Structure formats: C-alpha cells, structure tokens
Amino acid sequence: GLPQSVVITEVGPRDGLQNESLFVATDKKIEWINRLSDAGFRHIEVSSFVHPKWIPQLADAVEVFHGIKRAKGVVYSALVPNERGLERAFEARVDAVSIFMSASESHNQKNINKSIRETYPVLRPVVESAKAAGLPVRGYVSTVFGCPYEGNVDVNQVLSVVDSLLDMGVDELSLGDTIGVAVPTQVTELIARLSKEVPLSRIALHFHDTYGMAMANVWAGLLAGIERFDGSLGGLGGCPYAPGASGNVATDDLLYLFQKLGVETGVNREQALLAAAWFEQNVGRTLPSHAMSVLRGQ
Ligand code: HMG
Ligand code: MG
C-alpha cells in the first residue's frame, strides 16, 4: 500500500535557480526560502558551494544562509563539491551537506571536471569532515536513467557509484534523472535492484520533467516503496552542464498528488502556491507547473 507520509526535499532555491538566466537578488532568495519554511517545508536545499564561475546564479550562497530565518525543525542544506566548498558551507552554518556526482563518465567530467575515479578521493574527505561535524550527508547520483552525452546508462554503473557513496558513509542517496528521460518501468527495475543493497528508506528520487514523465515516475517510485521525493516549487530547474534538461518535477504538482492520495507531506498546499505566485513575480518568467497554471486561470 501507499505510505502514510513522504518527505519532500524542496530543491527550488538550488536546482531551480542554478539554470535561470536571470540572477535573482539575494534578498529575494532569502524571502523565497523564508516563505518555503513558513509553508511547512522541512528540507530545503538553499544553495550551492560550487565554484561561482561555474554557477554564478548561486555565488551568494553564504549571504543567503546568513540572511534566512532558521525555522525550528527545518534542515537547510546545500551542494558541496569539494573541501573548498565545505569550508564555505561551514562558514554558512549549513545543517546538512549534499555531495554529488554522476553515474556516467562524460556528464561527471563536464559537470565537475573530473573522471568518476578521480571524484571519489575528492568526495571522501568531504563526507568524513561533514560527519565529524555532526552533519548528515546526502549523496546525489546524476544521470541514473540516461546521460546527455552517452545516452543509456548501465544499471551496473549506477550500482557501482551507489556502493562507493554508501561506503563513504552517506546517509541518504538521491537518484537523479538529470535530463528527464526515464519512464516508469526503468524506475521499477532500478529500485528492485537497489532494494537488495540499501534500505529503501535511505533513497530519494529526483526527477526532471523533460518528457512529462516525472509524475508517472514518482508514482512508480511510490509503488516500489520510496518515501522521499525531490521537487522544485513551480517546476523550475535544470543542470547547465546537461544540455536539453528541463525543470524538476514541480513540488506544487507533487503536493496535489499527495493530498489527493491522503499521503501526508507536512506542507500547506495553499500556502506553497501563494509562495510560488509571489516568486513568479521575481524570477522573471512564468512558472511551468500545472498547479500554477490552474492558479493563474482562477
Ligand atoms: P575545478 O576548476 O576543477 O576546481 O572545478 P579545482 O579544484 O581545480 O580548483 C580551481 C580553482 O577553483 C581554485 O582556485 C580553487 O580554490 C577554486 P585558485 O587556486 O585557482 O585560485 N575552487 C573553488 N572556489 C569556490 N568554491 C569551491 C571551489 N572549488 C574550487 N567549491 C568544481 C571543480 C567541482 C569546483 C567545478 O567543476 C564546479 O563548481 N562544478 C559545479 C557544477 C554544478 O554546480 N552543476 C550543477 C549541480 S549538479 C546537478 O544539478 C544535478 C542534481 O540536481 C541531480 C540531478 O538532477 O541529477 C544534483
Ligand atoms: Mg537536478
């Protein structure tokens, strides 16, 4: 049957903004994140401590962390690619660290400038130091269902990266359909393989919606026993180093699904929609989610 509740990680402030052409002002980002915590989100990916030349939209990560209201019970996390990034993350007083790499060699190279083999020794000390400081660590694996440069990605390659990240000590894995090419049968098959290696409670699914399959893939994940899903309010998102990728599955659409299913999220859907409507005024374009187009039509 369906779970009683799910955990949503709102990645909009990070994934949603990293690919936008417009730089959203720091104070707008801060207000955006405050509105998210007010709406009931308990896991918010605030920004990214990557090289600001690679992702200029998030160059203000430290300022954003220092500006937000720290609501009780909310975990404010960020992407960290290496030890330099972790220093900045500590300075910003993050609550949790997300490391990231890809299951496919070429996306890993384009995205973080290293081969898969070269990446492990960079990430291992990040995980060790984060854990020594008492911070939980999430490990993203990108391109698990397809790569923008290589096409199909072998499931064994995904399992090998997953094993290495677990071996490093990550607490949670987030499996990324970076370019939004997955179909539900792939999700079912991958989760079946993974369930032999790792408790499903430690796996989150991170879908992008390029072909409109994201919601169907969430459903497949739910039926397979997954209880953690990433989304971006309004449906912004994408990776600048993954050509053709479109936005994340829209959190506001996820909230509709879960509300109708009677699955608790802890998020107030009306308040989340109002927050998205506010944000739309500041991001300079129409948000692509279904729920937002319904709201605009009312
Ligand atoms: P690099 O150039 O190979 O770095 O970049 P390096 O280690 O050779 O260092 C070069 C210089 O950069 C040095 O400075 C470092 O100090 C500095 P110098 O000594 O020359 O003056 N430097 C830094 N400065 C600030 N912060 C840092 C940092 N690191 C080095 N963290 C690097 C390697 C990983 C840094 C770069 O490739 C990068 O920043 N990549 C990030 C790309 C990115 O953010 N992509 C999007 C996120 S992933 C994603 O969206 C997928 C996901 O959503 C899941 C999914 O959908 O699949 C998570
Ligand atoms: Mg993503």
Summed up:
This protein is an alpha/beta fold and 298 residues long.
The biggest beta sheet reads: 8 strands, parallel
**Global structural class:** alpha/beta
Beta-strand content: 5-15%
Gap between N and C termini: 34 Å
**Gyration radius, rounded:** 17 Å
Low-confidence stretches: none
Bound molecules: 3-hydroxy-3-methylglutaryl-coenzyme A, magnesium ion
How many E strands? 8
Helical stretch count? 12
Account of the 3D structure:
There is one protein chain. The chain is an alpha/beta fold. It is 44% helix and 14% strand. The chain has helices at 12-18, 26-38, 61-67, 83-91, 105-112, 116-132, 155-168, 184-194, 214-223, 251-261, 269-283, 290-297, and strands at 7-10, 43-48, 75-79, 96-102, 137-142, 172-177, 203-207, 228-231. Helix 2 crosses helix 3, helix 6 (116-132) runs parallel beside helix 7 (155-168) and helix 10 (251-261) runs antiparallel to helix 11 (269-283). It starts with 6 loop residues before the first strand and ends with a helix. Residues 15, 176, 178, 206, 208, 237, 239 line the site of magnesium ion.
Key descriptive features of the protein:
298 residues; alpha/beta; eight-stranded parallel beta sheet; 12 helices; binds 3-hydroxy-3-methylglutaryl-coenzyme A; binds magnesium ion
Question: What's the structural blueprint in terms of helices and strands?
Answer:
Blueprint: E1 7-10, H1 12-18, H2 26-38, E2 43-48, H3 61-67, E3 75-79, H4 83-91, E4 96-102, H5 105-112, H6 116-132, E5 137-142, H7 155-168, E6 172-177, H8 184-194, E7 203-207, H9 214-223, E8 228-231, H10 251-261, H11 269-283, H12 290-297
Parallel strand pairs: 1-8, 2-3, 3-4, 4-5, 5-6, 6-7, 7-8
Helix pairs in contact: 2-3, 2-11, 6-7, 8-9, 10-11
Magnesium ion binds next to loops.
